[in-house]
Design goal:
This protein is α/β, with parallel strands linked by helices. Among the domains are: about 5-150, Rossmann fold, CATH 3.40.50.300; about 330-410, no CATH class. It is about 45% helix and about 20% strand. A hairpin with a 3-residue loop joins strand 9 (about 330-335) and strand 10 (about 340-345). The protein starts with a helix and ends with a helix.
Length: about 425
């Protein structure tokens, strides 16, 4: 690309639109933390989760800034050699030391440019929609120079903020509103554009864009039909344990390697997550069956074959996503019994969480209670919790205390 005038046109058009952008619901992050640091701020996450809007929110902290979005068909021929022209275009506008680079993963070798201008004293914010692409380049060229924000669709708190509900109020009418909103959120998820327009076709289009643009085309996948069947299978069977070998046999793949690679590709696009079984042996962790979670219940419910029993699994998926938002290191436990989530801090397991729609508190042989207790004993913890749909109670068994917490309350902690 050598048409400087075209680049000027793109930058001017994008900057005008960006400054007029509705900044929406302020995301639940520490803006002060990320504006004060001199490190590069990397915002990663699935398409349409609000990365550009978060950039716009950051831009309000500065008088002047430079901005460009590389997800623009006019920049299809932009290469690393064109960054020098981009800087000329920026500097002709006005003087600033703040640069916002949207969807940076579209440009090969972008990290070399970012490192150079960072060393020249620029404060840089970048966004990207591919986890591995970003992490590989950051680790290789920008180690120690960046901090990451992994952005998800709206949390329940953010959803309530959008709905103008003050969840800090304790009165009964507010509680009723919160519970009603939770039922909607549980089923429909938190993608900002879906919440705004309530267009289920948006979720369908989003899924297809990710499948085709971010996965099938980017990774040059030839087994299109099998790949789509695998994605649909994982969405339908979310929260369940899977093995690559069983997926190979069930869906008719020729090799386990293909299955493993395809699952990794979906993880890289933030479409799904793999949860490892906890084991003191790292090797056993890697070879054990994984549990699959999806980025959003609403997206999952548009794509997957659903049954009425899925509500419990939607609750579990929601808890997983919230733990990820809170930057927890998570595993699942499986011994004689099972526990949905173990929280690791440093070298220790510090919390155990079971998720169940309903619990019979008088049944001490309940499967969820037994699984939680086994995990608590294994890791020498006297307290554990079961996150429920609406129940709130305390179960005491010998020296062990189990707290039953309604999920809507837990999400607002």
């Amino acid at each position: 690309m050598n048409q400087l005038s075209l680049l000027q046109e793109v930058v001017a058009d994008q900057l005008k639109s960006f400054k007029l952008k509705n900044i929406g619901v302020i995301r639940n992050i520490s803006f002060k933390k990320y504006t004060k640091t001199k490190q590069i701020v990397v915002i990663s996450g699935i398409r349409r989760s609000g990365k550009s809007t978060l950039l716009a929110q950051f831009s309000k902290k500065y008088k002047n800034f430079y901005y460009i979005n590389f997800d623009d068909e006019r920049l299809i021929d932009f290469s690393v050699d064109d960054f020098k022209d981009l800087m000329l275009v920026f500097q002709k506008l006005y003087s600033s030391k703040i640069i916002l680079l949207d969807e940076i993963q579209n440009i090969d070798k972008w990290e070399r440019f970012v490192r150079r201008i960072h060393e020249e004293g620029y404060k840089i914010f970048i966004t990207g929609s591919n986890a591995k692409l970003l992490s590989t380049e950051l680790t290789t060229h920008l180690t120690g120079r960046y901090v990451k924000i992994e952005l998800f669709p709206f949390s329940f708190k953010e959803f309530l903020n959008y709905s103008n509900i003050n969840y800090q109020k304790k009165d009964s009418p507010t509680k009723v509103k919160i519970i009603k909103k939770f039922d909607y959120y549980l089923k429909n998820g938190g993608f900002p554009d879906f919440i705004k327009y309530k267009d289920k076709e948006f979720l369908q289009r989003l899924y297809e864009d990710i499948l085709y643009k971010d996965l099938l085309i980017r990774f040059k996948i030839k087994e299109t039909k099998l790949f789509k069947q695998l994605a649909s299978f994982l969405f339908t069977n979310f929260t369940k344990e899977i093995s690559y070998n069983s997926l190979k046999n069930s869906l008719g793949f020729k090799s386990v390697t293909s299955v493993k690679n395809y699952v990794e590709f979906m993880s890289e696009s933030f479409l799904i997550f793999e949860l490892y079984k906890y084991d003191y042996s790292l090797k056993k962790q890697f070879v054990s069956d994984k549990k699959i979670y999806t980025i959003d219940n609403g997206l999952r419910n548009i794509i997957a074959f659903s049954i009425s029993k899925d509500q419990g699994r939607m609750l579990e998926n929601l808890v997983f996503l919230e733990l990820k938002r809170r930057n927890k290191e998570i595993y699942y436990y499986k011994g004689k019994k099972e526990c949905d989530f173990l929280i690791k801090q440093g070298t220790r397991i510090v919390d155990t969480i079971q998720v169940s729609k309903n619990i019979n508190v008088d049944d001490k042989n309940n499967r969820e209670i037994e699984g939680l207790l086994e995990a608590m004993k294994m890791f020498n913890l006297k307290q554990g919790k079961i996150i429920t749909y609406f129940q709130e109670d305390t179960i005491k068994i010998n020296k062990y205390k189990i707290s039953l917490i309604p999920i809507w309350k837990w999400l607002l902690i």
